[in-house]
Amino acid sequence: MAQLLRVQNFNISSDGIGAGEDQSLERPFGHVAPERLFAWAGATASWPMRTDPGGSRGLDDYFTRDYARNIGAEIMGRNKFGPQRGPWHDDEWRGWWGDEPPFHTPVFVLTHHERPSFTLSDTTFHFVGGDPATVLEQAREAAQGKDVRLGGGVTTIRQFLDADLVDTLHVAVSPVTLGSGLRLWDSPDELLDRFHMEVVPSPSGSVTHHLFWRK
Ligand SMILES: NC(=O)c1ccc[n+]([C@@H]2O[C@H](COP(=O)([O-])OP(=O)(O)OC[C@H]3O[C@@H](n4cnc5c(N)ncnc54)[C@H](OP(=O)(O)O)[C@@H]3O)[C@@H](O)[C@H]2O)c1
């Protein structure tokens, strides 16, 4: 069976913004408070970063549960991994997620700056550069027959869309308007030349799921 490249649970505002500007150690999403985009996901029972029991079941939970299903590797941009820019001057930085990252697979961090791989629990981070097709090839090999998740941020997703390598997308649109930031799209219709789209408002009222699959 084909190994898909899947965007899972990517969160944007109703005006298409997936992160704020001016990211820093204190503000992983820049000027945007992450809960404005992630509230729906954080409320679910299967939210990967959940530390306490409980959480909702239903459609939103189906999507957070699906986050890991049949995923064997992730590709992410270095700005999702952390706030450093340029050469890696601080190798002590090992991502935002602590000693138990929620990936549980190899993760390929896109960067133009070399850094050795390291492992935290059952997640190994590799630092790679190159054109998207070459990086995807590496990730597919590591995924050992399973799919590859394209984890963001915005620049990374747009790059793989431009290279026409994405097979499916789940984009969760929250009912907030942010005005400025890193924009995934002006309108979801931009993808309709290549993808079918289904728009599914959640009964929770806190998100509208956008599902895309190839024509
Ligand atoms: N809304 C969501 O669901 C969601 C999900 C994930 C992340 N985020 C947020 O999105 C923001 C990050 O997004 P972003 O668009 O700024 O950046 P990004 O996509 O995470 O990373 C972009 C950087 O990755 C490196 N890179 C990308 N493609 C490359 C290639 N082919 N070869 C080598 N290096 C490559 C470059 O860094 P260098 O040249 O500097 O090495 C580039 O500047 C963060 O605030 C994060 O928290 C949001």
Low-confidence stretches: none
Q: Mind summarizing the main beta sheet?
A: 9 strands, mixed
Q: What is the class in the CATH system?
A: Alpha Beta
Through-space gap between termini: 18 Å
Proportion in β-strands: 25-35%
CATH superfamily: Dihydrofolate Reductase, subunit A
Oligomerization state: single chain
Quickly give the structural class: alpha/beta
Can you walk through the features of this model?
- The structure is a single chain.
- The protein is an alpha/beta fold.
- It has a 9-stranded mixed β-sheet, with helices on both faces.
- The chain contains 5 helices and 11 strands, in the order E-E-H-H-E-H-E-E-E-H-E-H-E-E-E-E.
- The chain binds NADP nicotinamide-adenine-dinucleotide phosphate.
- NADP nicotinamide-adenine-dinucleotide phosphate binds next to strand 1, strand 2, helix 3 and helix 5.
